Amino acid sequence: MKKLLLVQIFLFIGLCAFAQIPSISQIQSQQMKVEDLSDEQVRQLVAEMKKNKIGLDQLDTYAQQKGIPSSEVGKLKDRIRALNLEKELSFPVSGFSPITDTERTVDQEGTTQSARDVKPMTAAERDYDARRKKIFGAELFTNKNLTFEPNLRMATPPNYKLAAGDEVVIDVYGYSEVQHKLKVSPEGYIRIPYLGPVYVNSLTMDEATKRISQQLATIYGGIKSGNTFVQVSLGTIRTIRVLLIGEIEMPGTYSLPSLATVANALYVSGGPNVNGSFRDIQVIRNGAPVVRFDLYDFLKNGDLSNNIVLQDQDIVRVNPYKTRVELVGQVKRQAIYEVKENETLQTVLDYAGGFTDIAYRDAIRASRINNKEREVVNVPFAEINSFQLHSGDRFVVDSVLSRFSNRVTITGAVFHPGEYALEGANMTVADLIKQADGTKEDASTARAVIFRLKDDFTPTLLSFSVSEGGRISLQREDSVVIYSKLGLQEEYQLKIAGEVNRPGYFNFSDSLQIGDLILMAGGLRDAASLKRVEVSRRVRGKEYNPADSISSIVAQFDLSEDLASAQGFYLQPFDEVVIRKSPTYSEQASVSVDGEVVFPGSYTINTKKEKISDLMKRAGGLRPEAYAEGAVLLRKTFVNSSDSALLNSKLQIFYNKLDDSTAIRKMETTVSQKEQLLGINLLEILKTPGSKYDLLLEEGDMIKIPKKLETVQLYGEIYFPKKMRFDKKITFRDYIRGAGGFTNSALKRRSYVVYANGDVKSSKKVLFFNSYPKVKPGAEIYVPAKKDGKGLNSQEVIGVTTGIASLALIIITILDRTN
């Protein structure tokens, strides 16, 4: 039962969208029960409605047409709202709904599907659409915000006449109460229960109410006595068929509600086409024209008096236009306008809303088509009201010139710069300065300039003194510039550096002293010294002397606690002040010791003479498991760590020759740190404190002491680079053999060992044998590769041999001559 009900509703929804689908029977519609539907079935129904663009507010009307009980439609709406699905069924009004390819329908809710629907267009169609949009009035049918849909919820018009298909609602109330909804039959009757047929065709609502009340009085006696009352209203209105022909976008037969007007019919058909008239639209009824509708009356005056209500079988004919002209340029609405006989250019200007503010009105240029060719016509302003129009005329309204007839400009050091009117032929520069409220205090009055245009509009320049301005007359488009003294000099600044809170540049002021500049810089830092404050000054205004090598003047001062400097010393532009750091000031410096000590952590350097041995005492000494020979010192550096010779050599070996990614990552990590490895001999330091091995500590030093190391790492040109267990009985060559031996490209004599503390020892050549360094716990053995050597080719061998032979021959010859 649920599946059958769902299928019925889907058929109903499909019928709402496409009239070709056959309707369900009246009995099936009346048997529909919404409460039998599951939530999932309701969601499927909403999805189908959304697909067919059926809104929630359209269900009532469609349900009445198809005989579905209104109670079931209300229940369905409640189920949709309960599931929060009403938003899925919110669609913008898009026009009348189509019935067939040749018919268009306006449903009883006014929802439409018009011929203006957007679809892909060819180039010719785009050109056609662009030309149609230029026609004045076409926006009524191309603007989606305008619909002209009939209002089906208004009160029934008094002159509305009933006909077949209308629904009459009869409400009897009072002593007797009953309600009937009756359809007018094709013969013009309504059949009232227990009374019989009543003829209402062609009656107005007042006439139908009177006749129906008289008939009901025969069975309801209370109507005559006044105890029972009768109210007759119009329910669902009928549908009429109207034919639209002529120069129209989508001609054909349309099914419209009986309240539809001429404008409704034009809208559903897409309106007049490019050749259609907007001013000569006829309504033909029973073979004779009954009205001529002019859309311009509505566009200009809002007049819809000829927009009559259509009747069944009416014909709306759009005739071709007779005269059209185009108006472009400086008018408020540029468009193509249709004109009637005896209408002039002034009428077209009225349709266009008149001229814009910058329009040139003295003459309008027109392009006209005569019998053989085009011609240009000039229309003076006085003839606009009487100028007769020809179809195809194109009028161009130009704009006024973008120049001024009496403008002069003043800029620069005046109180109100800008544009002023040239008042009379004798207006002078002094008059213009007076209108600008005078010159500013920083104005340079000795020299000012006027930028002027000659008669041929080439620029020229005239210089003058402001005091002479009363003798210089101005001309149209003159531009007067009064310069500022401050703008004509380099910006005066002072610089302060050193131990101040905000060092930098500051603007110069007269009578500024050193203490004032210090305050402007945010005051002194804690490390600042008031002694030996230096001021460097530019050498300015001196005569050139080749023997004079002075490039700047430097003065030194001792400031008091109140920042007062030497009496009468004032700063000058571009002075640079330097505040030194106090020689006795020292910030805390910390070092750290990590690893196998009793108290690892960070320590503050007590004195500048503190050494590694002192730090080890403060850290409690070494733990029993500490490996002192592997201790390293990491010291911060102010250069890139790649500048270190040791790290540089390691990088070359690793990146160029090694495939051990672990070693490469290790080296990349080491290089990324802003520290340098400094090898120390911790055993000697602890044994002999203060010796040459006992280094002075610096801020940021980090001493790392590992546990006892028991491995040796091998890198480079060996067959199997790996980590091996340390054995003091095993020599360098034994470790190499344990890793597979040297490769063919190994440079044996350059092998070296890096010990755990960072010390490096390389191999030595003793006679014809290599002497390799001793290996210790934690050491790293590196075997570099030979450089790629290129052998001699056959020609080079012949060349070398020939050269040696020639040299030998020369030596023999010399010896023979000597003997």
UniProtKB/TrEMBL annotation:
Bilayer topology? Multi-pass membrane protein
Q: What GO CC terms are in its UniProt record?
A: cell outer membrane; pore complex
Identify the stretch annotated as signal peptide in this record: 1-19
Task: Spell out the Gene3D superfamilies in the cross-references.
Answer: Outer membrane lipoprotein wza domain like, wza like domain
Where does the protein end up? Cell outer membrane
Q: Which residues form the Polysaccharide export protein N-terminal domain?
A: 155-220
One GO MF term on file is: polysaccharide transmembrane transporter activity
The keyword Transcription is assigned to this record:
no
Domain Soluble ligand binding span(s) in chain numbering: 325-369, 407-453, 496-541, 591-636
- Please give the family membership noted in the entry: Belongs to the BexD/CtrA/VexA family.
List the protein's name: Capsule biosynthesis protein
